[in-house]
Specification:
The chain is an all-alpha fold and 72 residues long. The chain has one domain (3-71). The protein has helices at residues 3-31, 37-71. The longest helix is centred in the last third of the chain and has 35 residues, at 37-71.
């Protein structure tokens, strides 16, 4: 894989993490309403799920960066 391809791949992974976080921010308005405990509980589950997905994605980014560093 060329350096340009590695950088593009790295950027794509970061963009996917950004999308996850933006989605969580967007749905917060739907879930977090006054006097809506069920919505708050659902949002908490969403936060846990999203944080797990972000952690997995960040592990991939970390590995890609280590591979990239070795190739320099």
């Amino acid at each position: 894989m060329t350096t340009k391809q590695q950088i593009q791949d790295f950027n794509a992974q970061l963009e996917s993490i950004n999308v996850l976080l933006n989605n969580m921010s967007t749905v917060s308005a739907d879930y977090l309403k006054p006097d809506n405990l069920n919505g708050a509980e659902e949002f908490i589950r969403e936060v846990h799920h999203t944080s797990e997905l972000c952690a997995i994605a960040m592990d991939g980014v970390r590995q890609k960066m280590m591979d990239f560093e070795k190739s320099l």
